[in-house]
Amino acid sequence: RPVLVKLLRPQATNQEERVRRFQREGRICARLKHPHIVDVYATGQEGDYHYIILEYVDGGNLKDLLARAHPLPLSAALTAADQILQALDYAHRAQIVHRDIKPANIMLNRRGEVKLTDFGLARFEGESELTQPGTILGTLAYMS
Q1: Which of 6, 10, 21, 84 is the least crowded, having the fewest Cβ atoms under 10 Å away?
Q2: Which residues are known to be catalytic?
Q3: CA 122 – CA 28 distance, rounded (Å)
Q4: pTM value?
Q5: CATH class of the structural domain 3-142
Q6: pLDDT tens across 93-128, in order?
């Protein structure tokens, strides 16, 4: 099966925090088994490189689709919204908050099914924060 390998390359600045966030992303994603959330098959480390092996989604992301097909047909928009909400409901029931919902993090396979991805800013409900007070994480245009 085709996979996507997400790598965290070593850097001198904030490496410990980056590794903690990356490892947390792998742990969070591995817990979420849902048809509209990208599957995580494995996580690990090889030398200085940390990796997450993910399900490969054979379409593009919603951001690119919207740039090509604007506006999206109503039926397609409603289907995508329903699938995104199903994924978010499942994650929230598992006490996981995504914190970076945006079109670039919503993948579409060739059958038009949605797959939510990029849980890099996600956190477990009630978990102590890695984010320092006053730090803004996420994509400003999609924050609420």
Answers
A1: 10
A2: 100
A3: 8
A4: 0.83
A5: mainly alpha
A6: 999 998 888 999 999 999 989 999 988 887 777 766
Domains in the chain: boundaries = 3-142
| The pLDDT of residue 12 | 60
| Beta-bridge partners for 97 | 123
Please indicate whether residue 132 or residue 7 has the higher confidence score (pLDDT). 7
Length of the chain: 144
Instruction: Kindly tell me if the per-residue pLDDT of 59 is higher than 60.
Output: yes
95: left (phi over 0), alpha (psi -120 to 50) or beta: left
- d(CA 61, CA 38) in angstroms, rounded, equals 12
Q: Which residues pair with 6 in a beta bridge?
A: 52
Q: Which two tokens stand for residue 36?
A: 């509209």
Residues ≥6 apart with Cβ < 8 Å to 55: 3, 4, 38, 39, 40, 41, 115
